[in-house]
Design goal:
heterodimer; A: eight-stranded mixed beta barrel; six-stranded antiparallel beta sheet; 28 helices; 28 strands; B: eight-stranded antiparallel beta sheet; 8 strands
Chain lengths: 718, 208
Amino acid sequence: MSINKITNNPKNISEWAELVINLSDIGIILVDENRQIKQWNQWIINSSGIPASTAIGSTLDKIFPELKSVRLFNAIDDVIQYGMPSILSQKLNPHILPLYKTTSNKSDQNLMAQMVMLKPIKAVQKYCLIQVVDVSSAVARDHLLRIQAENYRQKELHHRTILSSIADAVITTNTNGCIDYMNSVAESMTGWSFELAKDKKLEDVFSITSTHSISSIEKCINNNHIPSTFGKCLTLEKANGDTIAIEESLAAITNEKAKIVGVVLVFRDVSKARKLADEVNWQAGHDSLTKLYNRNYFDSKLQALVEFSKSSNEQGALLYLDLDQFKIVNDTCGHVAGDELLKQLSQLLNSHVRNNDVLARLGGDEFGIILSNCPLNIALKIAENIRKTIKDYRFAWSDKSFGIGVSIGIVEISNRSDSVEKLLSAADAACYAAKDGGRNQVHLYKPKSSEAAARHGEMQWFSRIQNALELNKFCLYAQNISALDENNNDQHIEILIRMVDEDGSIIPPGSFIPAAERFGLMSSIDRWVIENVFSMIRQAINKKEWIPCHFAINLSGQTLSDAESLIFIVNQLSKHNIPQGMIGFEITETAAISNLSSANTFITKLKSVGCKFSLDDFGSGLSSFAYLKNLPVDYLKIDGAFVKDMVDDPIDYAMVQSINQIGHVMNLQTIAEFVENDDILAALKDIGVDFAQGYGINKPYKLIKENNSLAFSSIKQA
Amino acid sequence: MIKLTALQKDALGELLNIGMGRASASLSEMVGEEVELSVPHVNILPYKEAVNSVSENVGKEVTAVRESFKGAFWGDALLLFPENQSLQLVKALLKDQELPIEILSEMEQEALTEVGNIILNACLGSLSNIFEQNLEFELPKYSHGSCSEVLKQDKRTLQDQHNEGVLLLQMNFSLEKTKVNGYLTLLMDVDSMEALSKQLSIYFGGAV
C-alpha cells in the first residue's frame, strides 16, 4: 500500500481508489487484525492534524494515546473476529476520536461531533473499515430542535396556565370534531376529565339540549361560518345527568395559511344569572302573595286576546271577582289572616280555571279571570261554579270560622270588543251590579248596544207619555173589589189606567209606568187620574146616576213625597165636592217605606178630609209587619203572590191567614188580590178575609163606555 | 411447508439464548439496570401470521433496528420496541439529558440504533461464530412505523413472502425499572431455513 499523497493523474485502479478515498468527505481508516493502521485518508489528516506517514503502520492507541474508548476497541474486535459491523453514535460515545473542526485550535470546544461506523472487509486478510462522519450539523439541528421544543413547551404551558385560570370553560377540537384540549372549568362543567374526553367526539362530552350547536360547529369547521344566533341560552347536560344553563361562543382556529385546523368553544355557567332573570321576569308578572298573575300580566294578556278576537271568531269572557266578606276577616283577625285567606282562595280559584286561562289578583280582594276560547254560556257556568265554591268555603282562623262570598261580573270578549279599558270598566260595572243586587251573585254585563236601544225606547216613552197627558190619551179602567160578607153591600172599585196608542190600541201600564217613574212623570199621571175620576164622580152625582160607594186610586211614591200633590188632591176634593169616605188611595209598601215621614203626613192630612188608605202588595217585603204599626192605613191588600197558590200551597195559605189575622187585630179590613177562581174565593171566605179582587170576580173593564155612560150600572146588575 | 425438528428448534433457541445472554450483559451495563430474558420461541408461520404475531406482542406502531445477514443462510434480525418504550429506553440511556419531545430526534435515533446494534451483534455473534463467518452482516438500520411496514422484507431475500412460511424466532427482554420490553425477531424464508437446518445438522454432527 502506497503512502498517502494526492495523485492527480491516476494510472491504475489502485491509484484511482487512492484518489477517491482521499477526496471523500468522511474519515476513512483501515486497520488489520493487529489493529495496525493501513489507510488514513486526507479527511482524517485534516481533522486530526496527524499525517498519514505517522499514522500508517502504527496503531490507534499509539497515534491517540488519550483514546480510552473500550467500546471502539471491542467494536474493532467484533469486526475482526466475527465479521459483525458496529455503529458508534455521537450520543452514547461523544468525541470518540480526538478530531477537531480545525486542527489549528485543539481546544475541547473545537472537538468534532462524530459518528463512527465499523464494518469488515473480507479480503486476503481480515480488515476493519472505520468510517468517521462529522455530525456537527446534526448536533446543531438537534440542539435547535431541543430549544424550539422547549420554547414551545413553555408557551404551551403558559397558554394552558392562562386557560386553566380563567373562569370560562374552554374546549378545543380538531377538524374531525374530536376534543384535543379542555381546561379544568370545562372538566367540572361537563363532568368529564380531560383524560377521558380526549379524542372523543365533542357531542359525546358537550351534551347540550339544542342540536343546533353541534351543526354550527360543523359549519364552523367547514366554512368558518358562525351563525349570529349562536350561543344564546343553551342547557348543558353533565355526565351525571345534571343540567346547567350556559352561554357559549365559538371560533375557528386557523393556522398561518388561514386554513382551519380546529375549533375553540368557550362557554360559561349562566345558571345564576338566568335564575335571577327568571325571578325578575316572574315578579314582573306575578303577585308575590298569592303567586297568581298580577295586574300587568293580566292587562297584557287581555290586550292580546282582544286583538286576537278581532281577527278571529273566537269568543272569550272576562270575569271580575270581588270578595264579599273579606273586609270582615281583615278587620277582626288582622292582615295576616286576610293574607292567608287570599292565599287559600287563590288556590281554590286556581282549581276552577283551565290551564290556558289567566287568573290574576288585580289588587286587594279583587281577582280577574280571562277565559279564552270559551262561549258565554260556559263562562257563566264557570262563574257560577266559582261563586258556589267560594260560598261553600269556610275560612277558619284561630277559633273563628268565616263564610265568604264573591260577586262576579262577566263580560263577553268577542270581535266586537273595542278596548281593554272598556272591557275592564264593563266587568267592573257588572261586578258592582252583582254586589248591588245583594252580593254573592254573578252578573252578566249587557252590551252597550242593547242598553242604548233600551234607553232610546225610554226616550220615546217620555214624549209619548207627555203627549198622552196633553191630548188626554189615557183611559180609565176599573176592577171590582167585592165584599165577601154577604151582608155587606158596599161596592168598591179600583181605578186602573191604560194608555191609548195612536192606532187606538190599548197599552198596558207595565209598558209605560217604569218609563214614567224613571222620567218623573208619575205624579202628572196620578193628577190626571185624580182629576178625571173626581170630575166623573161629580157629573154622575149631578146626573143622579148610581155609583159605587168607594173608589180606590193608586198613588205613586213620587206623588207621596210631593207636597204640591197633596195640596192638589185637597183642592180637587173640594173643587168637585166629593163626598167623604168615597175616595181611597192605594200606596205600595215600598213607596210608603221609602218615604215614611212624608207618607205619614200625606195619609194623616187626607184622612182628615175623609179619604181612606190601603197598603198595596202587602207581604212582599220581609219587614212589612214592623212598619205596619207606623202607617195609619184602613185596608190591607194581601199580595197576590200568596193568594193565587194558597189552595195548593199550605205556606201561602198560612201567610194569607196570618196577614188577615194581623190586619184584623189592628182593626184593618183585608183585601185579597189575584182571586182567580171560586176555590180561592171559598178559602178566603173560610179565613174571613173581608174583600176579594181578581179575574175570578171580574176582569178590569173600561170605566166609560162608547156611549159615554158609566159602566157601573151593568156591574151592579151583574 | 418446511418443518424444523423439535431438536433443531431447541438448538437454535439455545444458540440465540447464549447470544442474548451476552447482549443483555452489555445492555445491563449501558443502562445500569438488570435485564430479564424470556425463553426463546421458535415458530414457522406464514408471513401474514408472523406479522400478526409480532403485532400482538409488540404493538401496531413499532420502532425497530434491523440487521440483514446473508451467507450460509440469510434473513433479517430485528430488535423491536413498542413506540413509546423506545423513548423510555433512550431516556434511560441518556441519563442526564431530558427529552422534551415526544419523538426521537436524529441523534437519538442514532443512539437507539447503536443500542440495537450492540444487542443484535451479541446475539448473532454466536451464530456467526458457529458458522465460521459464513455470514455477512449489514450495518444496522433504524426504522419506525406500523408493524407490517417495518417487517417488510426485501424481494432479494424473500421471493414469495406471502405464500411461504417464515421462521419467526422471538425472544423478549425487559428492563423492569424503566419498564421497557424489547423483542428480538429473526425472519427467514423457506430456502434460508433449509440452509440453516443443514448447518445445524453439520454443527451438531448429525445429532439434530
